[in-house]
From TrEMBL:
InterPro entries: DNA_Partitioning_ATPase, MipZ, P-loop_NTPase. It comes from the Bacteria. Pfam families: MipZ. This is Division plane positioning ATPase MipZ. Signal peptide: none annotated.
Length: 260
């Protein structure tokens, strides 16, 4: 494939685990041997950038080599600046990963409509579901698409018409285990119904685990074997979740190496 594969993590709502998911996918791809670049579009919080900066400091402090993407922050200078940043990595990297702010943002829209893979993490709640669709309060059937879903729907159609590229839109269901069973089934039914209308795929993501927050200061991840000390059963399960998430994204193979 010519050029880098663009992966955009986008959700106009905060608190969905978007940046945590993005950074773990980026490092998992780097661990496979792929050349990855990350552009953090959230110049306020900079969660992805700070995570990777912490990882860089840990490598220096411990004098170890860990898989790490190239990374920088887009300061919202201009659209031309964002395009130049992207072009800088386009031919030299396998993947360019964009982490967008949890709000409506013109630059987030721009990269989302030009993605190869668009990843929208949501928590399993109808508060988060409202981002992509609205449901009837009595039957929980989908009444209409949200503005965001309509935006992506139109972008996918325009993209297919102009250059023949289909945006693979994936809704990642994070924190499923913490949801009450009846609500979880209602969510599943609503997501399945909406996916048939607009054509996104659904995969399981990361559950709510303290370990993800604890690893942030060091920039380490659950695939960093030998650097985490003794792992409990819950941590091993979390590592398997990450493996399944990366597999579910079905990204193009850029290396013969396997995920650690």
């Amino acid at each position: 494939m010519a050029g880098a594969h663009h992966i955009v993590f986008a959700n106009e709502k905060g608190g969905t685990g978007k940046s945590t998911t993005a950074v773990h996918v980026a490092i998992a791809l780097a661990a496979r041997g792929a050349k990855v670049a990350c552009i953090d579009l959230d110049s306020r919080q900079r969660t992805l950038y700070r995570y990777l900066e912490n990882r860089q400091e840990t490598m220096k402090r411990r004098d170890v080599i860990l898989p790490i993407p190239d990374f920088e922050v887009f300061e919202h200078d201009s659209l031309a600046r964002l395009e130049r940043m992207t072009e800088h990595y386009e031919k030299s990297h396998d993947f360019i990963l964009f982490d967008t702010p949890g709000r409506d943002d013109q630059y987030a829209r721009f990269v989302a409509t030009r993605a190869n893979t668009l990843v929208t993490p949501i928590n399993d709640s109808f508060v988060d579901f409202d981002l992509i669709g609205q449901v009837d309060p009595e039957t929980f059937k989908v009444k209409r698409l949200s503005f965001y879903a309509e935006l992506i729907w139109e972008a996918r159609k325009a993209r297919a018409k102009t250059d023949g590229v289909t945006i693979d839109w994936i809704v990642v269901r994070n924190r499923v285990q913490s949801v009450e069973a009846r609500n979880q089934q209602r969510m599943s039914d609503a997501i399945d119904e909406l996916s048939k209308r607009v054509g996104f795929r659904t995969i399981s993501g990361l559950n709510e685990r303290v370990i993800y927050r604890e690893l942030f200061p060091s920039g380490l991840t659950l695939i960093d074997k030998g650097h985490l000390g003794q792992l409990g059963t819950a941590h091993i399960a979390a590592r398997q979740e990450l493996r399944e998430l990366v597999t579910g994204l079905a990204l193009p193979s850029r290396s013969k190496a396997e995920l650690v």
